[in-house]
Write a structure and sequence with these properties.
The protein is built from 36 helices and 49 strands. By secondary structure, it is α+β, with helices and mostly antiparallel strands. Helix 3 runs antiparallel to helix 5. It is globular. The termini are far apart.
């Protein structure tokens, strides 16, 4: 009995032991089998990489052939001190130049106005001639004079009186190419820009141009003293801008569809210098009378006011009728910072306004004063805490509202609450009752204007700037203003227009596809693809039009979207990949246009290699294709000329500007007053009156690249970088700052906060991490001369948010003295030691030329320099013609020869440029600047890597090289030098771009950074391997493998050995051969592997094999189409299991600079088919519009309400229906699918969930090399499946093998790394409004986050008691009609005078 019991109890124990043994055996089999595969595969890759990259030789040369090198710890505090001091010197040189300009301008203006006022001497009030930047005609280089006499305007559309005479502003100018300015200039004089909206021969414009004509002498003197100056300019309050040196304006209004809209008075450097910061409330009347033209004028008034604000200003915009409400609901009654993003949202909201009801002025004014009251003395957040202004836009006020102003804004009291200026804008031509709104402005130290047309809006609005500048003028204090970062002459408003252009281009392409669909759908063979299921007949066209019943709308939509019907996921992936490659290749051809001269023969090949069928291909004959490519070539050349100013790769030149105000030094002037004596005669009387006149602003530019040049990444090493922020916490420059999207400025490009770009390794909402906020506050409020430091663990997104790296970074930061900028530097904790080695450049005993370290006689050039770093550059001198343009490499060789041949010490920087009072157009000695440390380090690296060249390989090496089909090998060094060896000289695919053209940035390349990061894992004993993300859609992909070269030496300060990166070697080879080698290796099954569930080759149905990299991307798969894809996109279930076990880990990364496309709800043309009344409505609108236009032409608007005509004219903007003989029934099927939805760029936040190796990888896999597990219910019927992971030695890869049970169809979860928009919880009222309110749906998705900011360093000038004694100037009517009182008085005086004469 007991025996039986023991036997019974022992059965499950025996079974359990047998099960464990079976699992253990399976794991042992798998471990042995996978180890055999991975060891073989890893060894082959490692041997191949070492041979083709000459790794051992290069490692020895850096370690052993350079005994004088040193390893030093980065002294961040000393480094940031040196960089800020050098930057301070750079910026203060610009300030000194501005001070000279201000002194000259103010003295000259005083002399001019005093002589003009007294009449003691003749004064030139109009120039004999001047150079209008938009009317310049380029002279021929052989002409003797640099500037020729004025010529007659040849503008056929110019019907002004001066057309028949010589136009003093049209000049023929001879230009010379200047490398420093990046365009053709003339240094002998300045040129003048006059806004398009201003008549360039207006009396005050000519007067200002005349008295500033001799400013050229100061411009040139500054330029002689400091040749590193860029543009210098004087911007007048009247609108013109004088710029030195002279150059032709990029937009000369030759294209009437793209007029020049630049106005210097709306640029941030002008408005910052003209006014102290201000809190502003704009209240606009949207009552029932504000319709038509009045409404349009009111909107443009607000647009212009908003354009004059800076980041230091705070604003609110309110609508008022019988109630008062904020224009942007989520802004509420708060003042928001007037950055570009918020200003844009105000403008969008204004387009949604509707007029109705009566205007309640009392409530609006009380609301405005209440907002200003609540935001006083908030110096850190939400307030400018200086000037205050209320801007009232209306078509008339019923009362003076004296009780409100007397109570809340008594200008006679000394309290802050009595210093709000009120500016009133009366809109409407026929409005004559101006007394009330005029009184409001005069009573409250503001200004009144009457705006009657859209054309005068800008001139009238900008008058408020001169009024608000009065306290500053009276104090005679010249503050230095430093602007936010902005693009050169590009108008921000162009971004939305450019995006609309892209939408229109896409619409044209879609329309072409629709036309092709119409041809295919009636074809007996091709029409089947559009049929709905269970149909077999093509549609017929009968008397009543098309029969749509057999056509599938889904198939039509697919064809219009992708050019094919019923596309598979792989088809869509291939389409997107091909489009990306074509776009990349086009970009490469664009950059090569100047060197090759033509791309006409290259572009057509792109369509030929497009693997998917493009529907337009059938409709394009070879002749048409040739014509199209010719047109594209012409457009490319035109684009190249446009971008030539800043190089072929740059469309925008970002910069900051220093500016200073210019005042009229006279404190009083003589004015003539008229009064009537007892007899009624008019008597003149001259009286003295106090004045405070703002004349304009002088400024100069500092390109962001000048900051980056000083804070070069070479000084910080790989993965280190510098950045700068303003007193508002906004980024000035940062390597992760992305101001563009598809070559268009982002709406919020210059309001990116430090907290939105330094992403801390935490999941705090909005990245509001305490340590980060502490560092941000410290940077804002740091005192001059102090250096602080911080340590943060951050998440660094890489490769366009496909990869992520978590690292600890050490920060140091300091204030740039006497500016609003704080500069910071950071270096990863793992890279705190740097390799230092330089080679002094001189002729040695053998008279060896150091340039031979780079170029060998009769050998092609196989090296490049970092394109963004400055080694040596000509500031003056050097090549003077476009055809003489030298590459960065050519310029370096020139300087090396000069340095080596120099007698005595070589001056590394020569910027002294003659006497301040003389100007030498062609200096005898070139003006240049060289970075000594960088150049000497570069020469050292060139000498060490000089043996990196193609040599004959022995038989074994040749076999290894051919194993994977090496195409190119390369080495990049810390000094920015990149060398390469071409192993495959034969022609490749037409979309292939040479390695040297796509990877010239050395330590800034991703493969360089990843190789250095890998050193932390295995001390540099492996290659980092990656493949293109579209590798699965093509057969010609190249694999990139890189390995870092670290050198090791004892550091004397700590008496320990330390390592530092000196270079990275790498190779690109054929992926097809790599995959074939892997499949071949995995065909080998060990004899001892007897478990048939695991002992199978990879290319069978029993197991699936994947080689994955450190971020989860497929490098090799037995299914080729998976190559390059994120593994979660292939099998999310397995990926989740790997995450759960710790082999991978997730990292949430939020892109706070993202852009979303907001869909605008706007009906398309096809809607007319659904509702015949739409056609009637359009016809009625067109007819009424024509009648309104006729009424305007014959002046009938004098007898009817003029705004009614304006409404009708506005309505008629929609194009009328064209006459057609076809009945509506002949419209084609699914026409509603042909139009695309119009979108608008909208700032948003996007969340990425990215992956990197987890803790299990660094523990178990590194110790045992193997891990296995079981997937529960991994197929569609609930079966379990095994999987195993093995480390591939000497690489960053792992081998993943999944049992075939888990490859069942339809049960694989997809895990994507594609971004999703972050949604924030809104307040209940706003959440409800998002459904019906377009503005809320666009703007209020992201709650406003008010972060701490520093009050501007400049002194506040908001009020001066002496203003009471100023000449009364609070505005007047701009309309032609006079007031009734004045007319009656004139009639009375006329008849009174007539009676006296008669008697």
């Amino acid at each position: 009995m007991w025996t039986s019991l023991w036997v019974f109890l022992g059965i499950p124990v025996f079974c359990l032991q047998g099960s464990h043994k079976k699992v253990a055996d399976k794991n042992n089999f798998w471990k042995a089998q996978l180890k055999n595969w991975t060891d073989t595969f890893g060894h082959e890759i490692f041997s191949f990489g070492n041979v083709v990259t000459k790794y051992a030789e290069m490692q020895d040369r850096f370690q052993k052939n350079s005994p004088d090198f040193s390893i030093r710890k980065v002294d961040l505090e000393q480094l940031v001190t040196d960089i800020t001091n050098e930057t301070h010197t750079l910026l203060q040189d610009r300030v000194q130049a501005l001070k000279l300009l201000v002194d000259w301008a103010e003295n000259k203006a005083r002399e001019h106005f005093e002589r003009k006022g007294t009449g003691d001497a003749p004064v030139q009030s109009s120039p004999d001639s001047y150079v209008n930047a938009k009317k310049i005609i380029k002279g021929m280089p052989g002409e003797p004079d640099p500037i020729l006499p004025p010529i007659v305007s040849d503008d056929e559309d110019d019907d002004r009186p001066h057309k028949k005479e010589k136009d003093p502003s049209v000049r023929r100018v001879i230009f010379k190419a200047d490398n420093w300015f990046g365009t053709e200039v003339n240094h002998n004089f300045s040129s003048v820009h006059v806004p398009t909206s201003i008549y360039d021969l207006r009396e005050d414009i000519l007067d200002g141009i005349a008295w500033t004509s001799n400013m050229d002498d100061v411009f040139k003197s500054n330029f002689n003293q400091n040749p590193t100056l860029l543009w210098q300019y004087y911007a007048s309050s009247s609108g013109f801008m004088r710029q030195y040196p002279a150059s032709k304006w990029p937009n000369d209004n030759s294209n009437k569809h793209n007029p020049d809209i630049y106005d210097c008075r709306t640029r941030p450097w002008y408005t910052a210098a003209a006014n102290s910061p201000k809190n502003m409330v704009i209240i606009q009347d949207v009552s029932g009378s504000m319709t038509g033209l009045r409404r349009e004028i009111a909107k443009h008034v607000i647009y212009t006011i908003l354009d004059t604000l800076t980041d230091n200003d705070y604003v609110s915009v309110l609508n008022f009728t019988d109630t008062t409400s904020p224009v942007v609901p989520c802004f509420k009654d708060d003042l928001v910072q007037a950055n570009l993003e918020n200003v844009r949202e105000f403008k969008v909201s204004l387009d949604q306004d509707r007029t109705a009801g009566m205007a309640n002025f009392s409530e609006a004014l009380l609301r405005a004063f209440s907002i200003l009251e609540r935001h006083r003395d908030h110096s850190l957040t939400g307030s400018a805490n200086c000037n205050e202004a209320i801007m009232l836009i209306t078509d008339g006020a019923p009362y003076y509202f004296d009780e409100i102003f007397s109570d809340l804004n008594n200008m006679n009291i000394s309290e802050k609450r009595g210093r709000t200026r009120v500016f009133t804008y009366l809109v409407g031509r026929e409005v004559t009752d101006t007394n009330e709104v005029l009184w409001m402005a005069c009573k409250n130290k503001g200004f009144f204007v009457h705006v009657t047309t859209l054309g005068e809006v800008q001139e009238q609005v900008l008058k408020y700037l001169t009024v608000m500048s009065k306290p500053m003028v009276m104090s005679q204090t010249h503050n230095i203003s430093w602007s936010r970062v902005y693009p050169d002459v590009v108008e921000i408003a162009e971004s939305d227009w450019l995006w609309d252009e892209k939408i229109r281009k896409k619409q044209r392409e879609r329309s072409q596809r629709y036309k092709l669909f119409l041809k295919k759908v009636v074809n007996e063979t091709e029409g089947n693809q559009f049929f709905a299921p269970n149909t077999d007949e093509p549609p017929k066209k009968g008397k009543k039009g098309w029969s749509n019943t057999r056509i599938s709308g889904l198939r039509v939509a697919e064809f219009l979207d992708y050019g094919m019907t019923n596309p598979t996921e792989d088809d869509l992936r291939e389409i997107l990949a091909k489009e990306e490659r074509i776009e990349k290749t086009r970009g490469y051809l664009h950059s090569k246009l100047s060197s090759s001269g033509s791309v006409a023969n290259q572009l057509p090949t792109l369509a030929h290699h497009n693997h998917y069928h493009h529907p337009r291909a059938e409709a394009i004959t070879q002749k048409k294709l040739h014509e199209q490519q010719k047109a594209k070539e012409a457009k490319l050349k035109n684009d190249e000329a446009t971008r030539e100013r800043w190089g072929p790769d740059r469309k925008f030149q970002f910069m900051v500007s220093a500016s200073m105000p210019v005042f009229d030094q006279r404190n009083q002037t003589t004015v003539t007053k008229f009064h009537f004596n007892e007899s009624g005669f008019s008597i003149e009387e001259s009286v003295k009156q106090q004045i405070a006149i703002f004349l304009g602003v002088v400024g100069t530019d500092v390109p962001i690249k000048e900051f980056q040049k000083i804070a070069s990444p070479f000084k910080l090493g790989v993965n280190g970088y510098a950045f700068a922020i303003t007193e508002n916490g906004y980024i000035v420059f940062h390597p992760e700052w992305r101001p563009l999207t598809q070559d268009i400025l982002k709406p919020n490009f210059n309001s990116v906060d430090l907290a939105e770009i330094e992403l801390v390794d935490s999941d705090e909402s909005r990245n509001i991490d305490k340590e980060l906020m502490d560092m941000r506050r410290s940077m804002l409020f740091i005192a001059e001369g102090v250096v602080n430091s911080s340590l943060l663990q951050v998440r660094v997104p890489q490769d366009d948010f496909r990869r992520v790296r978590v690292r600890k970074q050490q920060y140091a930061y300091a204030k740039i003295n006497k500016t609003q900028y704080t500069l910071g530097v950071t270096v990863p904790k793992a890279n705190m030691y740097q390799f230092h080695a330089e080679l002094e450049i001189r002729l040695d005993a053998q008279q060896k030329n150091v340039s031979t370290f780079f170029d060998k006689p009769n050998e092609p050039r196989k090296w490049r320099l970092h394109p963004d770093w400055t080694y040596c550059e000509y500031i003056r001198g050097g090549p003077q013609k476009k055809e003489d343009k030298l590459s960065k490499e050519d310029i370096l060789i020139q300087f090396l020869q000069k340095i080596q041949l120099a007698k005595g010490s070589w001056p590394w920087r020569n910027i002294k440029y003659g006497n301040k009072n003389t100007y030498v157009p062609t200096p005898p000695s070139e003006i240049y600047s060289c970075d000594k440390l960088l150049v000497q380090s570069l020469v050292f690296d060139a000498k060490i890597t000089g043996t990196f060249k193609l040599k004959e390989l022995n038989q074994s090496e040749s076999q290894v090289q051919q194993k994977f089909g090496a195409v190119v090998a390369f080495i990049a060094t810390r000094s920015g030098l990149t060398r390469w060896i071409d192993y495959s000289e034969g022609p490749r695919s037409d979309t292939y771009i040479p390695f040297s053209d796509t990877n010239p940035r050395a330590i800034d390349e991703l493969w360089y950074k990843r190789a250095v990061d890998r050193y932390e894992v295995d001390q540099g004993m492996s290659f980092v391997i990656s493949v293109p993300y579209d590798a699965g859609t093509r057969n010609d992909s190249l694999v990139t493998a890189t390995r870092a070269i670290f050198v090791r030496k004892r550091v004397p300060e700590i008496n320990e050995f330390r390592s530092a990166p000196a270079a990275v070697t790498g190779t690109q080879f054929e992926h097809e051969k790599l995959a074939a080698s892997f499949i071949e290796i995995t065909q080998t099954i060990l004899p001892e592997c007897t478990d048939h569930s695991v002992c199978h080759p990879c290319n069978t149905e029993y197991i699936d094999c994947y080689i994955l990299d450190d971020n989860g991307f497929v490098v090799v798969s037995d299914t080729h189409k998976y190559t390059g894809r994120f593994f979660g996109d292939v099998d999310g279930n397995v990926l989740n299991e790997l995450v759960n076990q710790g082999i991978y880990e997730r990292k949430r990364v939020v892109d706070y600079q993202a852009i979303c496309h907001h869909l605008l709800s706007r009906p398309g043309m096809a809607n007319m088919l659904l509702n015949p009344f739409v056609t009637f409505k359009w016809m009625l609108r067109w007819a009424l519009g024509r009648l309104a236009w006729l009424a305007l032409q014959i002046n009938l608007h004098n007898f009817i309400h003029p705004d009614y005509a304006s409404v009708l004219a506005e309505v008629s903007d929609e194009q009328p229906m064209k006459d057609t003989k076809e009945d509506i029934s002949n419209w084609h099927p699914f026409l509603e699918l042909a139009p695309i939805n119009k979108t608008r760029l909208r700032p948003c936040h996007k969340e990425y969930v990215l992956y990197q190796y987890g803790p299990l990888y660094y523990s178990t896999l590194f110790t045992t090399g193997f891990y296995s597990g079981v997937m529960d219910e991994c197929d569609s019927i609930g079966n379990d499946g095994d999987y195993a992971v093995h480390l591939i030695n000497r690489t960053n890869l792992i081998l993943l093998v999944v049992q075939g049970t888990c490859n069942g169809k339809g049960n694989k979860e997809r895990v994507s790394i594609k971004p999703t928009e972050v949604t924030y919880e809104l307040e209940e009222d706003l959440e409800n409004m998002t459904v019906h309110n377009e503005v809320v749906a666009q703007i209020c998705r992201i709650p406003i986050l008010t972060l701490e900011r520093k009050k501007p360093s400049t002194k506040c000038y908001d009020y001066d008691k002496r203003e009471d004694g100023l000449r009364e100037e609070c505005g007047g009517s701009a309309a032609l009609q006079s007031s009734i009182t004045f007319v009656l008085l004139s009639i009375f005086l006329f008849f009174n005078h007539f009676q006296i004469r008669c008697s």
